[in-house]
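Help! Submission page says 'invalid entity' but I think these are all valid:
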Amino acid sequence: MSKVYPPDAKWYEMARGGIIPQAGNAAEYSVGGWRNEHPVRDDECCIDCLFCWVYCPDEAVRVKDESVKYQGFSPDHCKGCHICAHVCPKDCITMVPGPDFQPDEPGQSEEE
Amino acid sequence: MSEVAEVRGNRVALEGNEAVAEAMRQINPDVVAAYPITPSTEIVQTFAQFVADGEVDTNFVAVESEHSAMSACLAAAVAGGRVMNATSANGLALMWEILYIVSSLRQPVILTVVNRALSGNINIHCDHSDTMGARDAGWVQLYAEDVQEAYDNLIQAVCIGENMDVRLPVMSCLDGFILSHSYELLTVEPDEEVQEFVGPYKPDNPMLDIENPKTFGPLDLYDYYFEHKRSQMEAYPAAKQAIIDEGKRFGEAFGREYGLLEEFMLDDAEFAVVAMGSTCGMIRDVVEDLREKGVKAGMLKLRAFRPFPAEEVAAALDGCGAIAVLDRAASFGAHAGPLYAEVTSALYSYGKQIPVNNYIYGLGGREILPDHLQQVYGDLQQLADAGQPAEPVSFLGLRE
Ligand code: SF4
Ligand code: SF4
């Protein structure tokens, strides 16, 4: 899906009434800038119970083939809210100061 | 209102509320979601009977509060329907949150407001504190002088709000009890002609267009909100034009023409009074009386308060020696009444240096009498001599 309104869209270029002429586009809206801490998961400890995936309010916990292990987090959507760390039954997730996910941190996949 | 050019339509005696309900019946909206409140109750009650009797196709939604009423109206409008409602005072206040959302989403919901004093203390009688408080909510506001105009305004309100360059909600206001519960002989136009004047509803991006899904009312932060508000501001000059155009078209169709404002003996007037609503009728009498005595009195009646016709007001008052603005509402903490603030700001903005008095009157239904208005015009001679008001605000009919 394309972004309807780029960040430099002028007021007269937008649809009336603040509507977005497109549905289901929250995935395109980056809220990553709100984060001042980020989650780091110990993949060895993780039992793939998917609690973090279910509870994350922003679908920022990536999942593949019903597994979150080695999948990392979405830097555009994670707000650093602590919920995943809080619900993890094995305490595998640690909140680390700073907004930026580091590629060498455990729990981060290479791919974006 | 303008003179009735010819007797046509159906001449009947109706209360203001009945006349409004009659216009709603003729407009036959898709949805009415309402909650009753004095003095507007009768509008919705009468209309509910039309629904029960099958005289309209309207989906009538009985809700549990005015907040819900306006929420349901918003939802029905976003879905793609023509939506109407009526309320007063505290009912309007309870709608407050949703008023802003309706105008921001650019939905032409049409709301009759029967003007009544806001609590507290509890008072059911007329003043303009309810709609004056809502003046920044983004709704077009029309004020009626008499029952005929209340009926006529509601029909035009539909066309003004639904104009494709406008798409704004409209409040059609009439003075509580003074108009809502007074019988007046008026012309009710034939159903087919009203329907033809109003035309079928043209939805704009209706939510029920499920082939083209859209996002309505999303989170809108520092990155887009400002642009959206700027774009909303663009609708008000368009609304001004639509009020003029529809007023003309109404005149052509039914013989009663309307505009943003009406000048009464203002051309050569030395002393002008600016007012809104039913009081304008009495001012006309007083002006005629003063003219007979050789006083160059005139009146400027404001029909549209939002959008405020600043340029037109300044032009209409140009050449007057002294002006009085009558406010039927207090603006607590402001230096004067809300209409005064708008009128003086318009004069200042367009370079007119004319002294202006402000009178607050009629709060909570306090009577205003011709003697009060004689006093207002009398004061204007002194004001013209003095060049500026001794005190900006005085009160009419107050024990002091
Ligand atoms: S910190 Fe919050 S937003 Fe980020 S992944 Fe965990 S639950 Fe989701
Ligand atoms: S909640 Fe903890 S254990 Fe469960 S999948 Fe997430 S990180 Fe793994």
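Support: the input was valid. A stray whitespace character was the problem, and the output above is from the cleaned input. The mean pLDDT of chain B is 96.
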